[in-house]
Amino acid sequence: MIRIKAGVSRRAVREEEPRPLRRVLALGLPTVWGAMAITYKLACPLAQQNGIGARIVTSAVFFAVGTGLMVHVRQALMRELRAVRRVAGAAQSALLRPLPPRIDGLNVAAAQLATDRGAVVGGDLYEVIATEHGVRVVMGDVRGHGIGAISTVAAVLGSFREVVHDEPELGCVLRKLDRALARHLRERARAEHPSAGLEPDHPVAEEFVTVLLLEIRPDGEIRALNCGHPWPYLLSGPRVEHLTCVDPLPPLGPFPLPPELPVLHCGPLLLDETLFLYTDGAEDARNARGRFFPLRDVLAERIREHPLVAPQLLLGTVFTALLRHTAGAPADDVALLALQNDRQRQRPQGARGTARPATSSPQPTTHLQSNGA
Questions:
Q1: Which H/E stretch holds residue 170?
Q2: Is the pLDDT of residue 154 over 70?
Q3: Which has fewest Cβ within 10 Å: 6, 8, 125, 176?
């Protein structure tokens, strides 16, 4: 009798019931086929004859048995592969949860392309959460990709989701992420090298994570902290420019954070403007001739055709161009995130400088209306 535990669905129980039968078939069918082949060879009079016809029949029998065994083994391997992919997909969904299309007046789209196709996981991370302090965004890139980076991604994202609501200052959020990463690396070092003691001096010394933190306040003001990550692009009308050109801090992991963490005030995100965040796997992707992927040119061409393109279509355009550039095989994980301001408010007056300084009187941005095909 099978007892249903709390939280376990009936579908899961139904999937558990036939497993013993599948195991018996997995072992029994090859045994039966092998026994039939041996019995035919030893007991069948036709198999004892040396004529050409008898040899053809015997060869056909053994060929059929061998083919059946190969098909059976292939089906068993395919079942195992599907099970592994389901587990990997569940882990990916738990870590990089699907984002809603709209968060606090911002149209949102995000997607990831992992180079480890069998595992369906990568070393990139992102999250967008609406808080009382504004919409807070994290995007990062763990050194390496695939299964080896998944525990570090889980540590950083778990810490961000926990502290993002409680800490009023963006610098405090970054410090909590740094502590969570250091704690995770120490625990990993103890697990991988038990002889190093309880507090290893260099916990996984080569491990690091680039992290970009953004805060989009209710008035549209953008605040940022960057630890070694590429600055996002700002798509404003027909223009594509980096949010800022300030040198970022070192990545988290190898170096301690400085005592002071100056939060950058990057100016407002105006109505219909888009922030395009990405990991370095996008710009570092090369084609067969060794040329880097022209991410900025692709974005500029797209908004030149349709200045008000939806974030989902924008990501689709970039991924299509990226796969075409790399012949469908990028060398590194790629994550993209687009945030478009769709808040219904009065646009501030003034001009926006190309360096994105904070200003109290920015000029309005003119946008051409388009359906964004």
A1: helix 170-192
A2: yes
A3: 6
Q: How many CA atoms lie within 13 A of 312 on its CB side?
A: 7
361 secondary structure, DSSP code: S
Tell me the HSE value of 145 on the side-chain side, using a 13 A CA sphere.
21
Evaluate if residue 148 carries a pLDDT over 50: yes
Query: What does the chain come to in residues?
Result: 373
Contact in structure between 133 and 168 (CB atoms under 8 Å): yes
Give CA–CA dist 300/239, Å, rounded: 7
Decide: 356 and 264 in contact? Cβ < 8 Å.
no
Helix (H) or strand (E) holding 175: helix 170-192
Answer yes or no: are the C-beta atoms of 339 and 274 closer than 8 Å: yes
Element (H, E) at 130: strand 124-131
Angle of the 52-95 helix axis to the 150-163 helix axis, nearest 10: 30
Yes or no: say if 277 and 232 are a contact pair by the CB < 8 Å rule. yes
What SS3 class is residue 260? coil
Q: What is the CA radius of gyration of the chain?
A: 28
Contact 279, 112 (CB under 8 A): no
Using one digit for the tens of pLDDT, what is the confidence trace for 161-191?
Answer: 999 999 999 999 999 999 999 998 888 777 7
DSSP reduced 3-state for 127: strand
- Say if residues 264 and 242 touch (Cβ distance below 8 Å): no
Q: Is the CA virtual torsion 55, 56, 60, 61 positive or negative?
A: negative
Token readout for 134 is 């504004």
DSSP 263: -
Cβ 307 vs Cβ 238: under 8 Å = yes
Find residue 252's DSSP bridge partners: 209, 255
Which residues pair with residue 102 across a beta bridge? 107
Residue range 294-299: average pLDDT? 95
Phi, psi of 89 (to 5 degrees): -65, -40
Residues 150, 121 contacting (CB under 8 angstroms): yes
In the block, residue with structure tokens 């019995």: 39
SS3 category, 9:
coil
